[in-house]
Predict the 3D structure of the following.
Amino acid sequence: MTRYDHIVVGGGHNGLVCAAYLARGGRRTLVVEAADHVGGAAMTREFAPGFRVSAGAHVLDCLPLDLMGELELERNGLQFVARGLATVALGQGRSSIVLADGGIEGVQAGDAAAYGRFSRQMRRFAGVLDRVDRMAPFRLSLGGWQERLDAARLAWAIRGLGRHDMREFLRVVGMNAYDLLTDQFDSDLLKGALGLDATLGAEHGARAPGTVLTLLQRYAGRLRAGGGAMQPAGGMGAVTGAIAQAAVRAGAVIRTGARVRRIVVESNRACAVLLESGEQIHAGSIISNADPKTTFLKLLDPDQLETDFVRRIDRFRSKGLVAKMHLALDDLPTFTALQPTRLGARMLLCPSLDALELAFNPSKYREVPERPALEVCIPTINDPGLAPAGRHVMSINLMAVPYDLGADPAAARRRLAQAVLSTLERYAPGLSERVVASELLTPADLEREFGMNGGHWHHGALAFDQFFFARPVPGAAGYATPVPGLYLCGAGSHPGGGVMGIAGRNAAFKVLKEGH
Amino acid sequence: MQAQSAARSHYRRPLVTTPFFERCRDLVETDSFIAWSGYTVPDVFSSVEHEYFSIRNAASLFDLTPMIKYRIAGPDAQRYLNRLVTRDVSGLKVDRVAYAVWCNEFGHLIDDGTIFRLGADDFRLCTAERQLDWLLDSAIGFQVDVEEVTDRIAALALQGPTSCAILKAMGLAGIETLRPFEMGHYRLAGLPLMASRTGFTGDLGYELWIDPEGALQLWDALMAAGRPRGLRVIGYQALEMARIEAGFVLPNVDFVSAAQTVRLNRETTPFEMGLDWVVALDKGPFNGRRALLDEKRRGPRRRLVGIEIAGNKAAHGALVYDSSKALRQVGEITSALWSPTCKRNVALAMIQAPYFATLKEFWVDIYLHRELLWERRMERAWPVERPFYAPQRRKATPPPDR
């Protein structure tokens, strides 16, 4: 029987990245995945006969280029059908705003100049955030030399912005996006689109503090990914497929259909996983790609953790607010404000910051938005193979959909689906008639489908109080946990989710450094 | 609905009464009541000295109802408690009681109390402070129900050399066979009556637990059986004297609960309190274990020691020095008493490391307020064994009748 050095619980993209780096480090590594495929939510699946779509994230806009290079993802089969995807702030009339890397079309000269200044500054700030994201969180006590060095590096990176930018960075980083964008721009449509980017995946609307941080995270992601969003051929499943192949080539073993029931702790050390089948597999350490609540509150025996820690994990805010909707279309829709050549872009449907704020309001009261803000892609424009010939798939991220849909979830889902279609109709009249099949995944569905507690695509809100040395909670922030031999490598750890892989890589380096 | 309106009007009556209040009220001569965990209870009935001597020389009756009580029941109850407290409770048998303390993740004391094992999966936890939130958060992941039952149980402490005789006279057959920390089950007025050989006086004594409906009948039966055996009702102050003689620690007197400290380093650990005997580092994981293992290696920063002080002036709140010149402060007094039974001036003192181990002699700076003038005495003190007073009858089974 093979004796493994490490077992990674969960074959989501971070688990696979972690396994790949561990295997490259010479460690005998096993990945156990509950589903019959790897990838977690980063997978491609058929939602209607012949129609396939990325189940979660639908564009790749934060996977670092260096990580892709290190894991040789392109050699492992990853291809892109589009790079540097433009973002379109879709108008309801005849004109839209197109945001491409470094340029903008469709706004007045004042906004165009402001956008240039703004995005250059955001990229400089994002450079600092990228340094933070790549760093394994240190403890605030700065106990060791390495921690002091990391803290000094971080301080130096902020100082390196120069006097003016440093002040501005420290001024805006805790701010809300609404005020920042209102200060910069005139166009409601432009502000609405940037506001949507700031709040996609966040807990509250653009007026909430901390939304500049989430906007900066988006810029940092793009910076790492080499500029704009990319669309992998075959959907997101191709990305995780390539990472899995990189892991296997490096020597890792991946077992699907192997659901973990318990992480076994003996003599105060995590030493094995117990599968639902009853099989127990031993290893020197266990690395969990599952979200923090699942890891600590479901997979561990409760007496292995202390009350204070359990209390912090219990209070970790993990309720998602983004739903996913997939439409199978028998023909391309016509958008009144977009040329057909632009249909392969990432479209943001949010007329203004106020519209965004209004879309978020109902979610506070466990209600669905009447006019949701949407991020829309038609992946079949660039990748026709995802649907039968001549047909198309529309993939929609749907903002501000609460996890708890109140007393009558079925009715709420019907209202929500209707609201999405009627919103789309305002931009593309007649679209509803093209829909031949559809699928709606609310946060509660995402939780059930992919085993993420709360259905949050970051496994938990990305906010200052759940960031860096407080992510997911103090006591488990540096990928190590209070249980010796148990590590975290998922989106619930720093720097969070999105198909980014940094949490998985940072965790692997931590484990490699700490030995077996 | 009724519960809701009661909850909304609670502020109109900030203190509630115990089921024994109407009896106590008739017996209190001094009109001195104090607030204890939201209840109003007598501080002194007639004279502290008389009440104190009834504990040591005859028998005393004390209303224990305000002590916070939780019921902890369910298939995981034992596991839950073993993770909660520092002591190993897996060996605690049904109908036995154990003293325990519990800590947070830093090994800092939250509270102390007693665990009553009522059944295989059924426990009662008696505590000094309310802490339902802590107990409920500790229950995350466990199959266990935790509820506060303080007002559903009326409790009396019957303590003193004639206490067993009183209960025998009351008809509690076989009470004399109860060993210390053991529980017995009886009936009174058609209700179950539980007696445990426990107490806070360090003397022979029992605690009696009954449904509030039977409270007054229990009281009357005890008073009737106690009359020829010197029974006297006592207030909080007399009990406090006996508590110090017994060397027991009191939360928020001898240590500050980590749930309530505001200032840095005011928290206390079980090792600092000299409670090593209730810390089972080898029983498996529990709250505070990692921190306590570290402390075990390092040694405690300070330690609570029993001391005896020259003279007869109780050293309330006094500072402790290494020499009569008061050059270096090495600690402070947390509880102090001129012990009427021992005829010794005793105190509990928190002494800094390394002095608790190295010094054989301390000096205590006592301030006395006498007719509006402060007098200062620098008295010699020395470490002594705790408990300060430990009569043989507290452990004897069967206990002597007087």
Observations:
- The first strand of chain B starts at residue 32 and ends at 36.
- The CA atoms of residues 245 and 388 of chain B lie 5 Å apart.
- The mean pLDDT of chain B is 95.
- Chain B touches chain A through 21 residues (CB under 8 Å).
